[in-house]
UniProtKB/TrEMBL annotation:
<dbReference type="InterPro" id="IPR027294">
    <property type="entry name" value="NPS_rcpt"/>
</dbReference>
<protein>
    <recommendedName>
        <fullName>G-protein coupled receptors family 1 profile domain-containing protein</fullName>
    </recommendedName>
</protein>
<keyword id="KW-0472">Membrane</keyword>
<feature type="transmembrane region" description="Helical">
    <location>
        <begin position="26"/>
        <end position="51"/>
    </location>
</feature>
<keyword id="KW-1133">Transmembrane helix</keyword>
<keyword id="KW-0812">Transmembrane</keyword>
<dbReference type="GO" id="GO:0016020">
    <property type="term" value="C:membrane"/>
</dbReference>
<dbReference type="GO" id="GO:0008188">
    <property type="term" value="F:neuropeptide receptor activity"/>
</dbReference>
Amino acid sequence: MKFFIAHLAFADQPQCWIEFREQWQWQLYMVLISLALFVIPTIIITACYAVMIKTIWTKSAVQFPRGHRGSTNDRI
């Protein structure tokens, strides 16, 4: 990634710019940034919530066992 960075002087102030020569390089860069910032964290958060829901569901099943149909212990 370091070879994509260019140091330029603009209005006598140094600035860092990312320069890609081809359009596909910009597209690849944007896809990788989108994956790193949005998709991967979303997958991790979803997996964590799934584990929490499964844990709560199984713990409540142990605490409140299912009775026969029509009893007050029957879960909805």
